[in-house]
């Protein structure tokens, strides 16, 4: 993964202890969440550790986030590409390349390492359902929307517009990320689109 796992105490020791406020503090908190997820995993992450790393008090975290589950979810939502600008390049290939490109930039970043740490997290099933509902599903729907636009342009078969088909490209990105490690290259993304996704959906 390019970085060696370490204990939270070691992670906190390199955090900036300076007190922060407002948006600067919020970004520091989200940075601390991502760093500690990537370093030690979800189960080892604590509100106390995040607070210490972000240079604030634990009470400040609990005033806004009632649990570490809510804090982790919001941190991931803020670190992932925004959903208010779906791509519309004029072709289904362009749209899917752009969506997978956004995903690749995420998995190649520290946020990708943080997300990877959640994949083996099985004890808290309710939390993982929330991750899928708030973080993963909205991004799958953007892929589904790209396929629907492809149908309207005559590029995609109507029966190819399904969640199963929409999951293929992202699943292959994650496969390369987990098996080969980051970075997932642009060439890999183009091969996934041109050799797998487009032949599967073409009208």
Written overview of the protein:
The chain is mainly α and 203 residues long. The chain contains ten helices and no strands. It is 69% helix and 0% strand.
| DSSP helical segment count | 10
Largest sheet: none
Please give the number of β-strands.
0
Mean pLDDT: 84
Shape: elongated
Q: Which spans have pLDDT < 50 for at least 5 consecutive residues?
A: 1-14
Q: What structural category do the secondary elements indicate?
A: mainly alpha
Give short descriptive properties of this protein.
mainly alpha; elongated; disordered N terminus
Blueprint of the fold:
Layout: H1 8-13, H2 22-40, H3 47-54, H4 58-64, H5 68-79, H6 92-107, H7 110-119, H8 125-152, H9 163-180, H10 186-201
Helix pairs in contact: 2-3, 2-5, 2-7, 3-4, 5-8, 6-8, 6-9, 6-10, 8-9, 9-10
Concise synopsis of the structure shown:
By secondary structure, the protein is mostly helical. Helices cover 69% and strands 0% of the residues. Helix 2 (22-40) packs across helix 7 and helix 8 crosses helix 9 (163-180).
